[in-house]
Amino acid sequence: MQSAWDAQGHSAEVLKHLMLGIIGVCTLIWLLVVLMLFAALVKRRGQAPLQGEHAERKTRLVVYLSVAVTTIIVAGLTLASFFATRDLVVGRDMDLTVRIKGQQWWWQVTYEGSSFGPRFQTANELHIPVGRNVRLELESIDVIHSFWVPSLAGKQDMIPGRMNVLTLRAERPGVYRGQCAEFCGLQHSHMALMVVAQDDDQYRRWAQAQALDAAVPDDTEVQAGRAVFMRKPCAACHTVRGTEAQGSSGPDLTHVGGRRTIAAGLLETTRGSLAAWTADPQTLKPGTNMPIVPLTSEELQQVSAYMETLK
């Protein structure tokens, strides 16, 4: 679910209350205006309008009161917005730091070393421990992107040449969908991010497994797929730790088979979707930087088998 009303984190709760407050104030103002308009329309006909100095004083009083009330309302909403958004990035100790780089059209996720695990890199999926403050350092290497997981926090722009910071905290375990919220090109709508909130023990086990090199295959088909992967352009663009594949222009694939989706949320991770994406990424996601790699049917089967085992 992707909704700001489904608040499952501290920052999201603060923003939800801010939105409800603004909606409540605006609704009250609208009701008062409608009631005053209705009162004016049903005013007794034939009543002589006020004239002279008394009418002028009454008009002046109404204007002054209107300006004063408007000023108080605007100032109140401004202060409420300031303190709500200020709370998104300050005032809390951080338990974990994660650096996220937005690219056309995927997310590079780097976990800095902490008590929860060593430093490692993944893509398009963010795992966080429940009840912990996670510092997100947000960057972009091409155009302006915007990081937004509405159930956990507000949106934050990712601007080339500048690092912005956002605090993420999930109060309950679950999977929360995020999305780039700034139009960033042809496949902007296909730039999703899954945030998986886990308890401390589950997160530590996951982090320790993610930091390991890719498992050495023992199946004949998987071994053949690994050999195809290494001799094709795949190894020039992607990293699979523990192998000679050390490319940096594409997502780290060391444990791609264990992610919920591929291509930034476009497809569920299955052997079939891995094969389809490898065979023709330009049809599935036109404009993506991944080229079509010529593969025979047998090679495609082998490569998909290999990637499926990278968990």
Please, could you describe this protein's structure?
- The chain has helices at residues 10-41, 52-86, 200-210, 220-231, 234-237, 271-279, 281-284, 297-308; strands at 96-103, 106-111, 120-123, 125-129, 134-140, 145-148, 156-158, 164-168, 174-180, 192-198, 261-262, 267-268.
- By secondary structure, the protein is α+β, with helices and mostly antiparallel strands.
- Among the domains are: 96-200, Sandwich (Immunoglobulin-like); 220-308, Cupredoxins -  blue copper proteins (Immunoglobulin-like, Sandwich), CATH 2.60.40.
- A hairpin with a 4-residue loop joins strand 11 and strand 12 (267-268).
- Helix 1 (10-41) packs antiparallel against helix 2 (52-86), helix 4 crosses helix 8 and helix 6 (271-279) packs across helix 8 (297-308).
- The chain starts with 9 loop residues before the first helix and ends with a helix.
Question: What is this structure, in a nutshell?
Answer:
The protein has helices at 10-41, 52-86, 200-210, 220-231, 234-237, 271-279, 281-284, 297-308, and strands spanning 96-103, 106-111, 120-123, 125-129, 134-140, 145-148, 156-158, 164-168, 174-180, 192-198, 261-262, 267-268. The chain has 311 residues and is of the alpha+beta class.
- Figure out the total of helices: 8
- N- to C-terminal separation? 25 Å
Number of strands: 12
Which strand order spans the largest sheet, edge to edge or round the barrel?
Answer: 3-2-1-5-8
Main beta sheet: strand number and arrangement? 5 strands, mixed
Element-by-element helix/strand order = HHEEEEEEEEEEHHHEEHHH
Average pLDDT score: 89
**CATH homologous superfamily heading of the domain at 96-200:** Cupredoxins -  blue copper proteins
Strand content: 15-25%
The CATH class of the domain at 96-200, by name, is Mainly Beta
